[in-house]
Amino acid sequence: MIVACAQAPNEPGYQPSTSKLPLNQRTFAQYQYQTKQWLAQNRHFLTQYPERELAANTPFEIKANKELTPSRGVLLVHGLLDSPYSFVDIAPRLAAMGFTVRTVLLEGHGSKPANLLQTDADNWYQLVDEQVAIFKQEVDELYLGGFSTGANLTTHYGMNDDDIAGLMLFSPGFKAFTELDVMAPVVPWFTDWLYAPSLKHQTNYVRYMTGPSNAYAQYYRTSDDILALFERQTFDKPVFMALSETDSIINPHRALDIFTKRMTHHNSHLIWFGNAPTLNEQPVLDSRVTVLPGKVPEYQVSNYSHMGLLFSTDNSYYGVNGRQRFCVNGQQQGAYGRCVRGQDVWFSAYGYVEPNKEHARLTFNPWFEQMMKSLEQVFFNVP
User: Fold this and answer.
1) End-to-end CA distance of the chain
2) What is the C-alpha separation between 22 and 31, in angstroms, rounded?
3) Which of the four pLDDT bands, split at 50, 70 and 90, describes residue 64?
């Protein structure tokens, strides 16, 4: 039996907008403009700086810093509850390599959590289809990339379109961490919200800190779709993948297994943050897999989180000295209070506990530069 944990409070942020993000644009500039206008009218702003919030949640483009022949573009898609801000550090590095980079905003995101109540994964697929079609007309080679749910969407497209030149995948959500994901499609029949805390406590303006049960059902749909696809076929284009061994959101070993068995290109590469990986209790011998330590004492990092891969240590919002700290990290109340006060805080994946240490969620990557150099090797064969 499924029982609601909470009902949505009667607050503006938990009442859905009557309109949806616009689709069917002919150019990226038109898509970007219409999306920003929609956000300006429908976003529940959390700070006194609406323009800053709009900039973080609006799709953006960075032109390639150097001309390549053939020209290259990459479309990046964020994860569930996230926003285009997920790629604020990755995108400039890709532009420096010679990619024109574009991001999108998935329906239901960037505005207020209630706008995920009626979201359908078909809309997310449609958005990717439309933006790929636009981008194809402007570059010679098109690559796709994504984080978590966004990795599912872009991988699904790439496996069905031979024109896609390769994939860049960060914490791909091919399979959830627990088997409870099989319940996700039916939970919305019983309750709209599993957790609906007051928006008065929501301070993160680049992602939602909660979402309705329908959001997780739509994630499950993308997971089910991609796993079914991998049962039938392989992908023989270059792939870069990054995974944390201690990811508490997705199953990293399932993604690792798919990489070693179903992603067959010789130049593909996977960065594994943690200990030397095993599958079925056997060491992974694939030479395309590189292990980087998940414990980085000089940054007080105990292990790597789901989202920590995406951001550099000097990110102004999520970095070592960033403005946003995730102290709600599956620990006891006392640890939470000490974390908020900044008393000798360490960083980890959700739920990690170690005696005599307070852990915030890891939101930055001490190995960020090494990760991006490995990505460059995959797509440019640089030494």
Assistant:
1) 56
2) 8
3) very high
Are 108 and 179 a contacting pair, CB within 8 Å? Answer: no
What is the average pLDDT across 164-184? 83
pTM listed for this prediction: 0.93
Question: Strand (E) positions, the chain?
Answer: 61-62, 72-77, 99-103, 141-147, 164-170, 239-244, 269-273, 278-279, 282-283, 289-292, 345-348, 358-361
Q: What is the C-alpha to C-alpha distance for residues 225 and 342, in angstroms, rounded to an integer?
A: 42
Closest CA to 294 of 241, 369, 366, 345: 366
Annotation: CATH topology of 12-233: Rossmann fold (3.40.50)
Q: What percent of the chain has pLDDT over 70?
A: 90
For the chain, domain boundaries:
12-233
Q: What is the per-residue DSSP string for 233-249?
A: --B-S-EEEEEETT-SS
Output the average pLDDT for the chain. 91
Distance CA 320, CA 366 (A): 9
* 174: nearest Cα among 264, 238, 272, 254: 254
Say which DSSP state 213 is in. H
Question: Which is nearest to 202 in space by CA: 85, 313, 114?
Answer: 114
Secondary-structure breakdown of the chain: helix, strand, coil percentages, each rounded to the nearest 5: 35, 15, 50
What does the alpha-carbon distance between residue 280 and residue 121 come to, in Å, rounded to a whole number? 32
Burial class (CB in 10 A: 0-12, 13-18, 19+), 299: middle
| Identity of the amino acid at 46 | L
Of how many residues is the chain composed? 383
Long-range contacts of 287-296 (CB under 8 A, 24+ apart): 288/259, 288/260, 289/256, 289/259, 289/260, 290/374, 292/367, 292/370, 292/371, 294/244, 294/245, 294/246, 296/366, 296/367
pLDDT at 53 over 60: yes
